Amino acid sequence: MITGIMGAHWLIYSSDPEADRAFFRDVLGFPAVDAGEGWLIFALPPSELAVHPGEGDFVQQHAEQKLLGAVLYLMCEDVSVTVRWLEERGVRCAPAAQAEWGYYTVLQLPSGGHIGLYQPTHPRAV
After folding, report:
1. What are the structural domains of the chain?
2. What region, left, alpha or beta, does residue 4 occupy, with left being phi > 0 and alpha being psi -120 to 50 degrees?
3. pLDDT digits (tens, 9 = 90+) for 72-114
4. CA distances for 69 relative to 8, 51, 62, 86, 111, angstroms
5. 27: nearest Cα among 108, 118, 112, 120
């Protein structure tokens, strides 16, 4: 690992951040710290980074800079079991599908935004 880098911090932009924060805290059970005024910062499970080719300007203006856009997929051991668990808690998921890299679905956050969920079949870095 590169000296000095100790983790990664994801930013998710939401039209209803309070509802989505409650989802990550109450439904997924991710532990969090309050950075002030209810601004939760969540601990995440281990993660990986893959760099994919993109089309056009896939950027987000942040800190007065154009930063690369990103897509979040949570990883799981068994997508069908995890989807059933989520749906029992009222989370809407798209039908699962298979790709060369794994089994995947998309789940809807309370804000109406979406994130991915997948069971990798490729070699894993973590």
Report:
1. 17-120 (3.10.180.10)
2. left
3. 999 999 999 999 999 999 999 999 999 999 999 999 999 999 9
4. 14, 11, 11, 26, 19
5. 108
Which of 77, 67, 73, 30 has its CA nearest to residue 50?
73
CA distance 101 to 54: 18
- Model-level pTM? 0.87
**What kind and span of H or E run contains 114?**
strand 114-120
* Residue found under tokens 């993109």: 54
What is the H or E stretch that residue 19 is in?
helix 17-22
Provide the 8-state DSSP code for 58: -
Is residue 106 a contact partner of residue 117, using CB atoms and an 8 Å limit? yes
How far is 119 from 96, CA to CA, in rounded Å?
10
